[in-house]
Design a protein that fits this description.
Length: about 270
């Protein structure tokens, strides 16, 4: 008797909800297809309009999530779930998760601020949170930084959006500051001429901006020069290493002598 009653209830349930479930599955498949096409179309439009890559990625992800939530609500309505109750439960769950993940929400808000105000862009060389590196991408919660020694640093957007940031390459041009010393017996003009040859021959040095080769200070045995070379931001280290390496070669070719070692004054005392 119980088995027979169970069969009747099962048949009644399948009859009542079977069609709705099939319709919900069809709606889900069609909805996912349409969302995929819509997001792809939106991405192509933003690409054609040369929208910022970071903003494009953020908006595409956000729209995708919102459309999928709307699809789930629609499917719940087709099956017969009270949408108002479902939304209330979803809201309560969202509030609970939000309280538990306050840091993540702060990082999300920080990501939005970064994308709106753009203190830096993908490819910029920045100094932030004690790290120096090139921005690889701005995600919803984190910013990916690649350091100069090729380490990947993940910086939370919350603290990053409120802390000081130095955008080294924000203007597209950067000055490479170096200092060199040579023996005082060589003379200022001879040393400056040798340094000028290296700077003039540097392939990454900008040609439309004057570079500085200035005497910083003098000692009894040495003359110290500040060499300041302007280059494009992405060529900072290429310029730095080129000048340092070729100054050594040019000094050797021009017979520029190194600073003489300071004499040691040693006083011998006799003890009785």
């Amino acid at each position: 008797m119980n088995l027979e009653s169970l069969k009747v209830q099962l048949i009644a349930t399948v009859t009542q909800y079977g069609g709705k479930i099939i319709l919900a599955i069809i709606a889900f498949v069609i909805g996912r297809f349409l969302i995929s096409k819509l997001v792809s179309f939106m991405s192509n439009v933003m690409t054609q309009r040369s929208l910022d890559k970071d903003l494009k990625s953020f908006l595409t992800s956000l729209v995708n999530v919102l459309l999928n939530i709307m699809l789930l609500l629609s499917i719940a309505g087709i099956i017969g779930v009270q949408t108002s109750s479902f939304v209330a439960v979803l809201g309560a769950a969202t509030l609970a998760v939000g309280l538990a993940l306050q840091g993540s929400l702060a990082n999300f808000a920080g990501g939005v601020l970064i994308l709106i105000f753009k203190p830096f862009r993908t490819g910029d060389l920045i100094e932030a949170q004690g790290f120096t590196g090139v921005v690889e991408g701005v995600q919803i919660f984190n910013t990916i930084l690649v350091t100069l020694d090729n380490k990947t640093i993940i910086l939370p957007n919350g603290p990053l959006s409120t802390a000081p940031i130095t955008n080294v390459s924000g203007k597209g041009k950067i000055r490479v500051d170096m200092q060199f010393a040579a023996g005082s017996t060589n003379g200022v003009d001879m040393i400056r001429n040798s340094l000028s040859k290296v700077v003039s021959g540097c392939p990454t040095a900008l040609k439309d901006i004057p570079h500085d080769i200035l005497v910083n200070h003098l000692t009894e045995n040495a003359i110290f020069f500040d060499v300041r070379v302007w280059t494009k931001s992405e060529h900072y280290w290429d310029t730095f290493y080129y000048v340092n390496e070729n100054v050594s070669r040019q000094f050797a070719y021009d017979q520029i002598k190194a600073p003489a070692a300071a004499p040691l004054n040693v006083t011998l005392q006799q003890t009785s």
